[in-house]
Write a structure and sequence with these properties.
The complex is a heterodimer of chains A (about 350) and B (about 280). Helices cover about 25% and strands about 35% of the residues of chain A. In chain A, the strands form four sheets. A six-stranded mixed β-sheet of chain A has the order 6-7-8-3-9-10, sandwiched between helices. Chain A has a five-stranded antiparallel β-sheet with strand order 13-12-11-14-20. In chain A, strands 15-19-16-17-18 form a five-stranded antiparallel β-sheet, with no helix packed on it. The two termini of chain A are about 40 Å apart. In chain B, α7 crosses α9, α7 packs parallel to α13 and α10 crosses α11. Chain B has a single domain, classed as Orthogonal Bundle (MetI-like fold). Chain B is mainly alpha-helical. Classes of the chains: A alpha+beta (about 350), B mainly alpha (about 280). Chains A and B meet through β6 and α4 of A and α10 and α11 of B.
Chain lengths: ~350, ~280
C-alpha cells in the first residue's frame, strides 16, 4: 500500500521535531528513515503509526486520509527497538494477540489462529517455540517474535523503529539479511528507522535522510551516494573533506588553481567543494590541486592511511599503496579528481 | 559427622561479602526470641486448660461471632482496600497533577497515625451527629457503632499497604507495551485487562495479604467506631482484652491461638495463590 505524508509538522513544546515533511512510500517498498539521533526519524514513524499526532499535515494510506484515524484502527504493524513483547504471555499468545483483539465478526476461529501462529513462526524461522515465554528467548529471537506479532494482523504497512538497535553486531548482521528475505517473500510495504547508514544502504530500496526534523534527501542508494543533495547528506553517508572553492567562467578554482572537472550549471561565486577520500590522489608537485603536510601514517590491511593537514579546511585522510615512499612531516601533493559542489 | 560435613560445606560457600555465619545466626536467634518464643508460650498457655476446655471456649457462640466479625469484615475490607489502592497507586504514578506529592504523603498517614486517634476521628465523622453520619442518618442508615463502622476503619488502615505494594510495579510498566497493544488493534479496555493488569496481580495479592493481616490484628481504631455489641460488632481482639480483664488468661490464650491458626492458614493460601500467579503472570 502506498503511504503518503504531506506537509507534516510536529512540535514538542517550543521545539520543532518535524518540519515540512513530504514523503511518498511506494507499495511494496522497503524504505529506510536514516538520520542521527534527534533528527526526528522516530517521531515521523510514530506519526505514521498514529502513536503521535502531528500538529499539521496529513497521512494517507493508499489514498485514504488516515490522519484522524486512531492507532487502533490504522492497521499498522509496529516493531519496537526493545521488542515490547507481553512478558506474561507465551510466544503463541503474543503472536495471536492482534487476531484475538479483533471484533467478533472479523476474528478467526481458534483453530485458524493456532494455524496462523505456526505459519508465522515458520516464517521467522523459530518453529516450535509456541510455549516459551519472552524471558526465555535471546534478544534476536525476541525481535523475530515481535515481527511475527506485527505481521499477524496483516498490516497495511510495517513500521520498524531501530529494530536491531538493541542487538549485538553479529546478530544484527544476521537479522538484516533475514529481514530482507522476509520482505522479499511478503512484499510488505515497510518503513524502518535506523541511525546506521550501513544498515540502511544494505537493506533499503530507498533511503530518506533526515536532519533536525527535516528531510534532507530521499532516493535510491545510488542517488544519495552519487548526487548528495546537501552537505549534511555528504557528511552523514561517509568520510568527506571540504575545500573552499570558487566557481568562475565555468571552472572550479581551489586556492586560485583550476580543477580538472567542470562545475554543474548555474553555480557561481564562493562554494564548498566536498570530496570523498577516493576522489583524491597523489600527484607530482607540478600537477597539484592542493598540498599539505603529513601528520601521521597508519598501516591498514592492504594500504597505508595518511593523515594530511593544511590541504583542506580540516585534517583529511587518504589511503595510499603500501610501497608509497612517504614520511611524516613530508609535504604531499594532491590531485582532486572529482567532488560535489554546494553553494555557500 | 560424615553426613554433616557436606551440608556445612554447602552452606559455607565462598562469598565476596563475609559474615554469613554471624548474620544467619543473628537472624535465627532474633526470629526465635521475638516471634517463635511468644507464639510457643501462647500455645502452651492455651493447652493448659485441656482439650475439653479449649473446645468449650472455641465453640462458645460469642467467640464464634467475634471471630466471624473479625475475619469476615477484614476479608471484605482488604478486598476493597486492594481495589481502591490499585486506583490510587495508578493515579499517583501515571498522572502528574498539582498536589500529587501531598496526596502521595497523605496515603501514608494511616501508617503513622496512632490507631486510637484514627478511631476517634472516624467515630466522630461517622457518628449519627457527625459530618458523614449525619448525612445518611435521615435515610435510616447507621455507620458508626455497627459492622459498617468496623469495615470503614479497616479499609482506612489497609489502604496504604495496597497502594505501596503495587506502586513500584505500575511505575515500571513499559509504555511500549501499551503502544504495542494499541498498534495491534486492541481497545483501551482490552489493553488494560490483558496487558497492564496481569503482571500486577502478584503485587496486588501481596498488598491484599498485608492489608488483611493488618486488619485482622487491628484493635485501636476499631473499638472506638465498632460499638462493640456482642454478637454484632465485637471483634476477636476485643474479646481477648475482655477475657484478660476478667483474669481468664486461658480463655484469652485459646481465642488468640484460634486467631493465630486462621491467620496462618489464610496467609498460606494467599501465598500459594501468589506463587501460582507469579508462575502464570510473573515472567519478567
Amino acid at each position: 500500500m502506498e503511504i503518503r505524508v504531506a506537509d507534516v509538522a510536529k512540535r514538542f513544546g517550543a521545539n520543532a521535531a518535524l518540519e515540512d515533511i513530504n514523503l511518498t512510500v511506494r507499495p511494496g517498498e522497503l524504505l529506510a528513515l536514516l538520520g542521527p539521533s534527534g533528527s526526528g526519524k522516530t517521531t515521523l514513524l510514530r506519526v505514521i503509526a498514529g502513536l503521535e499526532e502531528a500538529n499539521q499535515g496529513h497521512v494517507y494510506f493508499g489514498g485514504q486520509d488516515a490522519t484522524s484515524l486512531p492507532v487502533q484502527k490504522r492497521q499498522v504493524g509496529f516493531v519496537f527497538q526493545h521488542y515490547a513483547l507481553f512478558r506474561h504471555m507465551n510466544v503463541a499468545d503474543n503472536i495471536a494477540y492482534g487476531l484475538r483483539a479483533r471484533e467478533r465478526a472479523r476474528r478467526p476461529a481458534e483453530s485458524e489462529i493456532r494455524d496462523r501462529v505456526g505459519k508465522l513462526l515458520d516464517l521467522v524461522q523459530l518453529p516450535g517455540l509456541e510455549k516459551r515465554f519472552p524471558a526465555q528467548l535471546s534478544g534476536g529471537q525476541r525481535q523475530r517474535i515481535a515481527l511475527a506479532r506485527a505481521l499477524a494482523v496483516e498490516p497495511r504497512v510495517l513500521l520498524l523503529d531501530e529494530p536491531f538497535g538493541a542487538l549485538d553486531a553479529k546478530v544484527r548482521k544476521d537479522l538484516r539479511g533475514w529481514l530482507r528475505e522476509i520482505h522479499e517473500r511478503t512484499g510488505q510495504t515497510t518503513i524502518f528507522v535506523t541511525h546506521d547508514q550501513d544498515e540502511a544502504l544494505e537493506l533499503a530500496d530507498r533511503v530518506a535522510i533526515m536532519s533536525q526534523g527535516r528531510l534532507e534527501q530521499v532516493g535510491t542508494i545510488d542517488e544519495v551516494q552519487d548526487r548528495p543533495a546537501t552537505p549534511f547528506v555528504m557528511n552523514f553517508l561517509g568520510d568527506a573533506v571540504r575545500f573552499d572553492a570558487t566557481v568562475a567562467d565555468g571552472r572550479i578554482l581551489v586556492a586560485g588553481r583550476p580543477l580538472g572537472f567542470r562545475p554543474p550549471q548555474g553555480l557561481s561565486g564562493a562554494v564548498d567543494l566536498y570530496c570523498r577520500p577516493w576522489h583524491l590522489h597523489l600527484v607530482p608537485s607540478e600537477q597539484e590541486d592542493a598540498s599539505g603536510t603529513i601528520t601521521a601514517i597508519r598501516r591498514l590491511a592492504g594500504a597505508r592511511r595518511v593523515e594530511v593537514s593544511g590541504a583542506a579546511a580540516e585534517t583529511l585522510e587518504i589511503d595510499v599503496p603500501l610501497d608509497a615512499p612517504l614520511q611524516p612531516g613530508e609535504t604531499v601533493h594532491l590531485g582532486i579528481k572529482q567532488g560535489f559542489l554546494f553553494p555557500r | 559427622m560424615s553426613s554433616a560435613a557436606p551440608v556445612l560445606s554447602r552452606l559455607k560457600r565462598p562469598s565476596v561479602i563475609p559474615g554469613f555465619g554471624i548474620t544467619f545466626g543473628f537472624s535465627l536467634f532474633y526470629l526465635g526470641l521475638i516471634v517463635l518464643l511468644p507464639l510457643a508460650a501462647l500455645i502452651v498457655r492455651a493447652s493448659r486448660i485441656g482439650w475439653d476446655g479449649f473446645l468449650a471456649v472455641a465453640t462458645d457462640s460469642r467467640v464464634l461471632a467475634a471471630l466471624k466479625v473479625s475475619f469476615g469484615i477484614s476479608l471484605l475490607a482488604a478486598l476493597v482496600a486492594s481495589v481502591f489502592g490499585l486506583l490510587v497507586a495508578w493515579v499517583l504514578t501515571r498522572y502528574d497533577f498539582p498536589g500529587r506529592r501531598i496526596i502521595d504523603a497523605v496515603v501514608d498517614l494511616p501508617f503513622a497515625l496512632p490507631t486510637a486517634v484514627a478511631g476517634i476521628a472516624l467515630a466522630a465523622l461517622y457518628a449519627p451527629n457527625g459530618w458523614i453520619g449525619g448525612l445518611v442518618e435521615p435515610f435510616g442508615l447507621k455507620i458508626a457503632y455497627t459492622p459498617a463502622g468496623i469495615f470503614i476503619a479497616l479499609v482506612f488502615i489497609g489502604l496504604p499497604f495496597a497502594v505501596r505494594t503495587v506502586e513500584p510495579l505500575i511505575a515500571e510498566i513499559d509504555r511500549e507495551q501499551e503502544e504495542a497493544s494499541a498498534t495491534l488493534g486492541a481497545s483501551r479496555s482490552r489493553t488494560l485487562w490483558k496487558v497492564l493488569l496481569p503482571p500486577l496481580i502478584p503485587a496486588i495479592l501481596t498488598g491484599f495479604a498485608l492489608a488483611f493481616a493488618r486488619a485482622v490484628g487491628e484493635y485501636g481504631s476499631v473499638i472506638f467506631i465498632a460499638g462493640n455489641l456482642p454478637y454484632v460488632s465485637e471483634i476477636a481482639p476485643l474479646l481477648i482484652v475482655i477475657k484478660l480483664s476478667e483474669f481468664d488468661y486461658a480463655g484469652a490464650a485459646v481465642i488468640a491461638t484460634i486467631m493465630l491458626a486462621i491467620s496462618f492458614l489464610a496467609l498460606l493460601v494467599i501465598n500459594l495463590i501468589q506463587a501460582w500467579s507469579r508462575r502464570r503472570f510473573g515472567h519478567v
